Amino acid sequence: MGHDPPQRPSQGPGHPHDHEHAHDHHHGHAHELGPSHGAGHAHEHSHAHGHEAGHGHEHGHSHAPSHAQGPLGRGEGKGKTLFLDAFSGIAGDMTIAALVDLGVPFAVLENAFEELPLSGYHAHLGHVHRSGIVATTFDVHVDGKQPERTYGWIDRMLVESGLSERTKTLARRIFRKLGEAEANVHKMPLEEVHFHEVGAVDAILDIVGASAAIEWIGAPVVATPLPMGKGFVNARHGTLPLPAPAVVDCLRGVPTYVGRSTPLMEQA
């Protein structure tokens, strides 16, 4: 895209004196407007159905980040390549923040969020300082408890949404990849897979928002090999090794490498 999209700096223990100064420039609030389609599961492996209501509306209260080259118009990435340098891994919020910083208008994400029958959240677009470097941030804050959604509910929600076909297709492909990995790990039907962290409203917005931004740019995406962490993580199902089993399943065929810790260089 002419220049690498800024990466959100890591927050590892190697920088004990870094201080975060977050400045939110854009806030969104979800308001309930009416009943939605589809049903969600409120409890793990439960068959009780609940209905969600409302559309997520993002209302900007101040200015979006400025861009050195101005905002990107729809399809300006055609004939170019969107390159993601994932030297420290990648996440949904990091992807959205980088693409907005690159020039995707935040209104593109706002419009996509409004097409989803989700409520009880508000989103923040801002920036953060790390060692004199400024990066854009995207955060979703949940106002209350959210139901645990199944793959089947999320897929139906996307199908019935008013998202553009290309955004809808990409978001469904991402969730299907995640759902198939969970189904393989837990040996259960795809439709019945319960998403915990991934089924939360922030993860849904991350995936839908990133899909909408990528469609807006219109360029093929290329990423560097992904670094693999080590150790263990406490999850819903207990202590799991890193990378977690479902992550390993998702990464079949994807170039990876073992992450290495590089000692900090002392300033001369």
Summarize, please.
By secondary structure, the protein is of the alpha+beta class.
Element layout with pairings:
Layout: E1 23-27, E2 29-35, E3 40-41, E4 49-50, E5 53-57, E6 82-84, H1 92-102, H2 106-114, E7 121-130, E8 133-142, H3 151-160, H4 165-186, H5 201-217, E9 221-223, E10 226-228, E11 232-235, E12 238-241, H6 245-250, E13 256-258
Parallel strand pairs: 6-9, 10-13
Antiparallel strand pairs: 1-7, 2-5, 3-4, 7-8, 11-12
Strand content: 15-25%
State the distance separating the first and last CA atoms.
35 Å
Instruction: Summarize the biggest pleated sheet.
Output: 3 strands, antiparallel
Helix content class: 25-40%
Number of strands: 13
Which structural class do you get from the secondary structure elements?
alpha+beta
Give the number of helices. 6
What is the N-to-C succession of helices and strands?
EEEEEEHHEEHHHEEEEHE
Rg calculated over all Cα atoms: 19 Å
Q: Give the low-pLDDT segments.
A: 2-63, 261-268
Mean pLDDT: 77
Shape verdict: globular
Strand order of the largest sheet: 1-7-8
